[in-house]
Design goal:
The protein contains four helices and no strands. It has 88 residues and is mainly α. It has one domain.
Length: 88
């Protein structure tokens, strides 16, 4: 599912081009700005490197299903992160 969602975001044209152009930035003349990564390329660039299990200094990861961003309880998410970080 991660692969499909990543490609859909690229195709909507809303992402920063640094995510779409995999090898260089800024865009060069003739660059395809609607490049769809193959499943194999995606695996090599993300899953093989462990990006699907991204971890920072052992801090517990908060997973958010952003399929429907309007349904995310942002305040609850902020509270959860503050609690994890030892804040108020």
């Amino acid at each position: 599912m991660f692969y499909e969602r990543y490609n859909q975001r690229d195709l909507r044209g809303e992402r920063h081009l640094g995510h779409v152009l995999q090898e260089h930035f800024p865009p060069r003349e003739g660059d395809n700005l609607f490049y769809t990564m193959t499943r194999q390329e995606f695996y090599e660039k993300f899953e093989k490197l462990g990006m699907d299990k991204f971890d920072i200094r052992g801090i517990k990861r908060v997973e958010v299903d952003a399929t429907y961003p309007e349904k995310i309880d942002v305040e609850a998410l902020i509270d959860q992160i503050k609690t994890m970080l030892g804040g108020n």
